[in-house]
Design goal:
With 403 residues, the protein is an alpha+beta fold. It is built from six helices and 26 strands. The structure holds adenosine monophosphate and magnesium ion.
Length: 403
């Protein structure tokens, strides 16, 4: 039974094989934030490109044992001075100034006494106080590998390279439809038997957080014609991923499989050894992919974090890493095992400076109450004995490190 279901790892491997990398685009630096670099970039020149002073002081030749040095040049940062420094001479330099020919040491200004246009030094240490040409990177050395996410450090590495329109991943375009005849918009008051739709809000927020683009979002009842009308109509914009929320199960009113069949999708995954989220469906049609996500909000959330997010990364980056950390279980009660691999919501707490993950109250996969402040999902392997507080387990951190 449950163990004959496909494991999450197997499902992730199948998805990784079926997802095609989207073509890259070139974007200005500011717009490229959060995208994956789709080219490997190397230093186009030595970095720094010239010997630079690391301090405010006086540039001299380190072998020059003169008592007094005549100041023959004043070199603010950004100014080129070709005047060579000879014996008994120095140049006034500042942090970032180009070191003139003949000098190979900067004596810091704290050791200097000025006498008009000459200077004496109370001390000369061995430090050169110079950042040598090529010290950070040699021309041609790789600085950023293809596939790196462009966040502030990486973006600011591109600027000195003069790369102002890097080749980056596009935003995967998502078409999202929530199905369920019981659903009403959050602004409506549900009649008896109805509920407010929370998955539209959750999915829009997850998509925004992931950097993907939600090109259209609809809500419909459990009515195949209505669903197909939406799917076959606008948006005119092409989309890469179809997300159907709800209707993943085998029930009479579950439309996921029927809709995918009518649209010509091939179903590649159906039912995983995953809790919550077992009914998740994955399908492809050419280069487009589709997921039917079980409607229970927690199942929705877990499927997004352990499966769908990786599919987005495959589309944008061409590979995906499942970043799990080895965490310590907090709280007072053991975490029960289950026949199915379980992803348990948790919150980060601290025991002194040691991080602990505290399981959150979770009654059913439809339950989101008690989940405010969730930081992580804890992995309880299939058929695992209860995990006691203090034991280690794998966790997927959702904030701030989730990829
Ligand atoms: P389904 O996957 O369609 O069988 O739905 C499973 C459970 O999740 C049912 O109790 C639904 O009422 C609930 N559900 C489905 N869609 C949503 C939604 N958009 N917002 C909140 N709950 C939902
Ligand atoms: Mg339903």
């Amino acid at each position: 039974m449950p163990n004959s279901l496909l494991s999450l790892a197997e499902a992730r491997a199948i998805i990784a094989q079926c997802v095609h990398l989207l073509p890259p685009e070139r974007l200005p630096l500011a717009a490229a934030r959060g995208r994956f670099l789709r080219e490997t970039l190397a230093a186009t020149e030595d970095m720094p490109a010239f010997d630079r002073s690391a301090m405010d002081g006086y540039a001299v030749n380190r072998d020059d044992a003169s008592i007094e040095f005549r100041i023959v040049a004043e070199i603010p940062a950004g100014v080129l001075s070709e005047r060579a420094i000879g014996a008994g001479e120095c140049a006034r330099v500042y942090t970032g100034s180009a070191i003139p020919p003949g000098a190979d040491q900067v004596v810091i200004q704290e050791f200097a006494q000025r006498h008009g246009d000459a200077v004496t030094f109370s001390s000369r240490t061995a430090a050169s106080n110079i950042r040598l040409r090529g010290e950070d990177a040699r021309e041609g050395s790789v600085l950023i590998e293809r596939g790196t996410r462009l966040v502030p450090i990486e973006l600011s590495l591109l600027a000195p390279l003069g790369v102002t329109t890097p080749l980056v991943s596009p935003r995967p375009r998502i078409f999202h439809i929530v199905t369920g005849s019981e659903l009403v918009p959050p602004e409506s008051t549900p009649a008896h038997g109805q509920i407010r739709d929370s998955n539209s809000t959750m999915t829009a927020a997850l998509v925004a957080e992931s950097g993907a683009e939600l090109i259209a979002q609809h809500r419909t009842g459990d009515d195949l014609d209505e669903l197909l009308t939406i799917l076959q109509g606008p948006p005119d914009t092409a989309w890469d991923i179809l997300l159907l929320s709800g209707g993943a199960g085998p029930g009479d009113h579950d439309l996921g499989l029927k809709a995918l069949g009518a649209l010509g999708f091939s179903v590649l995954l159906q039912k995983l050894n995953l809790r919550p989220g077992k009914p998740l469906i994955f399908a492809t049609r050419g280069r487009q992919i589709a997921f039917v996500i079980p409607g229970n909000p927690l199942a929705h959330f877990v499927c997004w974090h352990v499966v769908i997010q990786s599919a987005l990364e495959m589309l944008a980056r061409g590979c995906t890493e499942f970043g799990l950390v080895n965490a310590t279980l907090g709280g007072d009660s053991p975490l029960p095992g289950n026949a199915r691999e379980t992803w348990w919501p948790a919150r980060l707490t601290w025991d002194g400076d040691a991080p602990l993950l505290l399981p959150l109250k979770w009654q059913s996969s439809g339950d989101l109450t008690g989940l405010a402040g969730i930081d992580a999902l804890l992995r309880v392997p299939s058929n695992c004995p209860p995990i006691t507080p203090g034991e280690k387990l794998a966790a997927r951190l959702l904030r701030p490190f989730a990829g």
